[in-house]
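Anyone able to model this chain together with magnesium ion?
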Amino acid sequence: MEAILQMKDIVKQFAGCLALDHVNFSMQKGETVAIIGPSGSGKSTLLRCINCLERITSGSITLNGDTFVETKAGMKAVYLPDKSLKNICAETGMIFQHFNLFPHMTCLENVCYAPVKVKKQKKEEAQARGRQLLDMVGLSQKGEAYPAQLSGGQKQRVAIARGLAMNPEIMLFDEPTSALDPEITGEVLSVMRKLSKEHTTMVIVTHEMGFAKEVADRVIFMDAGKIVEEGTAEDIFQNPKSERLKDFLSSVL
Ligand code: ADP
Ligand code: MG
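re: yes, here you go
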């Protein structure tokens, strides 16, 4: 199988805080990986390092064959020049807890903005694809609506359509349902379930243990900046090995 992402020996040091402590993580094309773990364990930082919202302190990251950041012995990590970095970032789509839609743009404009600006797609093409994607997330009627006119679940579905519009190699979801009322998390989870079934390569940081169990090909448990355990949903939820994972599961299940 083809590794689409390889992160080797990743360290991310913030002032006074070691957020990632020698993490090794790789993904195969088409895989759905769920990341679970207590607050502050480094889950968001790991995603943010993949799409370059944060720069790593040391280690190496290879995405789709391009090693865009690497450390030589004892040195800090060196990134590719910015232009190539932009290409790398365009290969990942990030979905945030708080949607982060552009408030002054309609839903369709939100979805089409990056393909036109970054990928230089023709406006008509981007709009046609944008409408398909809005349809796919169940919002074909909302193209002309503004984010303020939508519910939280609808906003998050627009954000997913916007992420997919760039045809990224990997979709990164950082607690996509945490800001939603329980009764509407289902509509967002069902879009993600559909993507997972279609073998979209995706990483999902989530507190929805039932959902992780159902969709994840692999589950990763992080604590204190480290990957403590990883395995199938059955390994992690039915047969946890470490005390830390057992404690975590008993606190959330
Ligand atoms: P999680 O997503 O698992 O809750 P994070 O990745 O957000 O955890 O955070 C990991 C650790 O890094 C935490 O201790 C957090 O306080 C720290 N951290 C995250 N972002 C920053 C930042 N920009 N500056 C300083 N510390 C940070
Ligand atoms: Mg987080």
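The first strand starts at residue 3 and ends at 14.
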